[in-house]
């Protein structure tokens, strides 16, 4: 079976569904490869304006495929294909909205943190249980969690393996909304539709700038913001946006 299902949802929206239900959507190398390929194709397809990533209604992902990892030794793990795949996933340039239900653990939580906006179902549970396996997070968990929810809570997750409920994840800023589980995808689609109607070059620049805030010192981040802001003055969509405002009509953006 295809480890990631892909479907179009109306104009400009793609839904990617992790599809290894028997393994709680564990992130096998084959799954990550397929996901990286699909995101690469979506990035290059001008028709696609936003992507939704979900594991369906029961589980987001139970982390790396533990059975596959058990086959690695200290040398083969160095040549592991997965870091390259994770990098490709992180570099997706269009809006990526996660719709998370059930367990979102280990690499699953790290994958959720690759999303730009997270919608959680009330039953979602977030954790980094790698410590129980004698390892630590390997796809950014120790770096992104403290930047997102703060050091003390990130330490509790990484050292004690504590889980966060959906409500806690909302309070701590890991997710932006909590809805009944059956509405996570609908809510993500609603947001994706709003974003899909915005000028795509400005959307891409906004994502790049906000993401850079996780990495750059403030002065460099402000410089990047300024450069991206000025670049957008060269776009037809910027002229259209300002003209439409002056003429009191809705803007028609073309991604140019
Ligand atoms: N990998 C492989 N199979 C898994 C799995 C996983 N992570 N999680 C569950 N499964 C499989 C189970 O083995 C079981 O298979 P069968 O026995 O039916 O063949 C089936 O899914 C159903 O699992 P359960 O019977 O356990 O189902 P429950 O609903 O009772 O429990 C659970 C669900 C998610 C709470 C539980 O399965 C669980 O605790 N799973 C393991 C969670 C975990 O430890 N996750 C962290 C994995 S470490 C890296 C990047 C990333 C990472 C590492 C390196 N690089 C780029 C280098 C990430 C590491 C991790 O994520």
Polypeptide structure, described:
The chain contains eleven helices and nine strands. The chain has 256 residues and is of the alpha/beta class. A six-stranded mixed β-sheet has the order 1-2-3-4-6-9, with helices on both faces. The chain is globular. The model has no long low-confidence stretch (mean pLDDT 97). Bound molecules: 4-(N,N-dimethylamino)cinnamoyl-COA. 4-(N,N-dimethylamino)cinnamoyl-COA binds next to helix 2, helix 3 and strand 5.
Summarize the structure.
With 256 residues, the protein is α/β, with parallel strands linked by helices. The protein has eleven helices and nine strands.
Overall mean pLDDT score?
97
How many distinct helices? Answer: 11
- Compute the gyration radius: what is it? 19 Å
Task: Bin the strand percentage.
Answer: 5-15%
Low-pLDDT parts are none
Question: What labels would you give this structure?
Answer:
three-stranded mixed sheet; 256 residues; 9 strands; binds 4-(N,N-dimethylamino)cinnamoyl-COA
Strand and helix map with partners:
Elements: E1 4-8, E2 13-18, H1 29-44, E3 50-54, H2 66-70, H3 82-90, E4 96-100, E5 103-105, H4 107-112, E6 117-121, E7 125-127, H5 141-149, H6 151-160, E8 164-165, H7 166-171, E9 177-179, H8 184-196, H9 200-212, H10 218-232, H11 236-246
Parallel strand pairs: 2-3, 3-4, 4-6, 5-7, 6-9
Antiparallel strand pairs: 1-2, 7-8
The structure holds 4-(N,N-dimethylamino)cinnamoyl-COA.
4-(N,N-dimethylamino)cinnamoyl-COA (DAK) binds at residues 23-24, 26, 62-67, 80, 82-83, 86, 103, 105-107, 129-130, 133, 138-139.
């Amino acid at each position: 079976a295809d480890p990631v299902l892909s479907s179009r949802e109306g104009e400009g929206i793609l839904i990617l569904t992790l599809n290894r239900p028997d393994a709680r959507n564990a992130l096998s190398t084959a799954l990550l490869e397929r996901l990286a390929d699909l995101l690469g194709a979506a990035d290059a397809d001008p028709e696609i304006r936003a992507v939704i990533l979900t594991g369906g209604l029961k589980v987001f992902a139970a982390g790396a495929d533990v059975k596959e990892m058990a086959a690695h030794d200290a040398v083969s793990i160095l040549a592991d294909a997965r870091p390259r795949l994770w990098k490709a996933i992180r570099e997706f340039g269009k809006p990526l909205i996660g719709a998370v239900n059930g367990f979102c653990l280990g690499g699953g939580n790290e994958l959720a943190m690759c999303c730009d906006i997270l919608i959680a179902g009330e039953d979602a549970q977030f954790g980094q249980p790698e410590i129980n396996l004698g390892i630590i997070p390997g796809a950014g968990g120790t770096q992104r969690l403290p930047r997102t929810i703060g050091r003390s809570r990130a330490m509790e997750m990484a050292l004690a393996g504590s889980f966060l409920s959906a409500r806690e994840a909302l309070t701590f800023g890991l997710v932006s909304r909590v809805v009944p589980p059956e509405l996570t995808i609908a809510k993500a689609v609603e947001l994706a539709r709003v974003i899909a109607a915005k000028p795509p070059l400005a959307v891409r620049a906004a994502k790049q700038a906000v993401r850079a805030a996780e990495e750059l010192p403030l002065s460099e981040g402000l410089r990047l913001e300024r450069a991206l802001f000025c670049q957008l003055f060269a776009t037809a969509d910027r002229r259209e946006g300002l003209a439409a405002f002056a003429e009191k009509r809705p803007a028609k953006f073309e991604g140019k």
